[in-house]
Amino acid sequence: MGTLWAVGIGPGGAEFLTGQAREALDRAEVLCGYTVYVELVAPLFPGKETYTTPMRQELERCRWALEKAQSGKEVAFLCSGDAGVYGMAGLLLQLAPQYPGVEVQVVPGVTAALSGGAVLGAPLGHDFCVVSLSDLLTPWEAIEKRLRCAAAGDFCLCLYNPSSRKRAGHLKRACGILLEAGKSPQTVCGWVRNIGREGQSARVLSLQELREAELDMFTTVFIGSSATREIAGKMVTPRGYEAKCGW
Amino acid sequence: MGTLWAVGIGPGGAEFLTGQAREALDRAEVLCGYTVYVELVAPLFPGKETYTTPMRQELERCRWALEKAQSGKEVAFLCSGDAGVYGMAGLLLQLAPQYPGVEVQVVPGVTAALSGGAVLGAPLGHDFCVVSLSDLLTPWEAIEKRLRCAAAGDFCLCLYNPSSRKRAGHLKRACGILLEAGKSPQTVCGWVRNIGREGQSARVLSLQELREAELDMFTTVFIGSSATREIAGKMVTPRGYEAKCGW
After folding, report:
1. Minimal CA–CA distance to A81: which of B82, B234, B76?
2. DSSP classification of residue B81
3. Which of A95, A121, B68, B172 is spaced 20 to 30 Å from B146 by Cα?
């Protein structure tokens, strides 16, 4: 029986891989995942069997990997960012009991909330929420409720999947809900596109401006708490040392 | 003028460093940080000047690093986990305008929500909140409000700083608030102690049991949403493929 590593590869470039992720990819005989991720990473680990499927064939891809591991192969299942945060580690662990003898090991990685946050500065320096705006698997009402609760708690927010061709307008709706729930139009926000990849771009802007922004599915969005500030072009949520130390 | 890298080193062991973090630590002439973190990492990058201060001298440590960078040195400021999530990146960016010419670059890392989550399985597989129970810099009322809002939104929760000698009882109070706010006593929870270090331990348990647990400050706590399940000893929050695919 083989091991199946669910590996978080970070935002893309080799420089975001942890040593632990490298080791798993190195040991694996098979690399499996969504086509784009495998293409990013496979050239660094040549000579391995690869298996890729397009988006939205997650169940089939997970079953393939579990079967492969059951047949005795060492398999690495590539996940963008972290393996657990909207990644496939959960689905693999849900299915694993149907494949006796396969051991699923989760290897964490730098999720977009962290890699995108670093580009903007330190937007998640205090308590925060991560919410996906994709309603493929989650009813929009549940997303809306979470946005209202995040606003009520004055959390910083990181939004994944802010839009897609089928979800045009989701970000605009989300911003509207947050404003309605009491967030100021001047709340400091930011977005990062193509994190850690060619053509990376980012902007710090107000919630009011974010509402009108046209962003694509390769973008991660950050919405500040009431304490978040723009400092020299960076988005920063202070933890509160300035109050404690009395500047 | 030098560069100041705020580097997220992950939970401790060298295997959690990203390539980007390694490169910054390699290029730096000075390693600076809380004593424990510097001791974990400095042996991997020998022959460098080091500067350490005990806990709670964050402001002084940041100023030292900024001055050093202003004098022309390349400085790496070590942060446990991620540089931005309750890390020093925010404070460094807040202070940086007082040190003209110093460029602060943030290098993200694997924060405990991710590294601890991987040990437990995939507890943060759907929308989640991260909340620190430390009231050193945040009034307890604000923490309590965020816990209530996280419960109202049926978020998964990751709790940092669940207790310390001065904060005994905070976790118990937090669990009480979550129960009062409507979370079921049977909610699947978990904790991980000494993530990625010697003597790592973890347990999956109910919210009711968590309320009675005695945990120390080296522990990270996970509280499930209503969808979180224990599967073969792992803590898993499904994203919803099982519903979509009709198992």
Report:
1. B82
2. B
3. A121
Say if the Cβ atoms of A14 and B18 lie within 8 Å: no
Residue B239: list chain A partners with CB under 8 A. 86, 90-91, 137
Q: What value, to the nearest 5°, has the Cα angle with vertex A146 and ends B139 and A191?
A: 85
The three-class DSSP label of residue A152 is helix
The tokens describing B120, both together, are 């437990």
Beta strands in A35-175 (DSSP E): 49-53, 75-79, 103-107, 121-122, 128-132, 156-160
Strands (E), chain A: 3-8, 30-34, 49-53, 75-79, 103-107, 121-122, 128-132, 156-160, 188-193, 201-206, 219-223, 229-231, 234-236
Q: Which of A78, A57, A90 shows the shortest CA–CA distance to B228?
A: A90
- List of chain B residues whose C-beta atoms are within 8 Å of the C-beta of residue A118: 8, 83-84, 89, 106-108
DSSP H helices in B75-135: 89-95, 112-120
How many residues can be counted in chain A? 247
Predicted ipTM of the assembly: 0.96
Q: Nearest to residue A9, comparing CAs of A20, B6, B118?
A: A20
- The pLDDT, as a whole number, for residue B138 is 93
What does the pLDDT read at residue B94?
97
Q: Are B84 and A123 in contact (CB under 8 A)?
A: yes
At A188-238, the pLDDT tens digits run 999 999 999 989 999 999 999 999 999 999 999 999 999 999 999 999 999
Q: What value does the CA radius of gyration of chain B take, rounded to a whole number of Å?
A: 19
Residue range B86-132, pLDDT digits in tens:
999 999 999 999 999 999 999 999 999 999 999 999 999 999 999 99
Parts of chain A with a pLDDT under 50: none
- The model carries a pTM of 0.97
Put simply, the answer to whether B121 touches A106 (Cβ < 8 Å) is yes
| Contact between chains at A97 and B231 (C-beta distance less than 8 A) | yes
CA distance A166 to B17: 37
